[in-house]
Amino acid sequence: MRILVNNAATTPRRRKETPEGIERQFATNVLGYYWMMAAFRDHLIASAPARVVSVASYWAGGLDLGDLQFHRRPYDNDTAYQQSKQADRMLNVAFAERLGDAGVTVNACHPGDVVSTLSRNLGFGGHETPDQAATTPAWLATEASGARETGEYYEHQRAVPCRFGADREAVEVLVRACEAYG
What does pTM read for this prediction? Predict the structure, then answer.
């Protein structure tokens, strides 16, 4: 069985761009996940049953599909982070639909509030150890639940309703936006 774990995030306090000119949080937190799932799609299907686990967050929302890179809005790292994690949860639903019939489950989760540079940049500081934060992603990657369910969002090893995937039109707009970056 093959497992892809998407676990990357950044929260620069000021708007920064990659060398390709893409706003850094969007590039890392959203496009990174999209590109990994797209790049490994055929490999995951060929090695099914397979799993994708995307580390997202309960700290999600405020996605502006018309301004994914903060060209129009003033950049705020907290707003950019919440937007990116909403997008991750939406991509989770999109890829679950695209890969589910091929024997690949795709689920997202909140890892917990780990003490990290990321949480400090957002003003939280965190209170969990890295081992505690790894519990739900590792559980989805290795336990039976991660093989049975797809398109779900988990917190503390429990499926939690996620409203972000319900707007199918918005999910497809996001996917098309990600596709445009190659």
Answer: 0.94
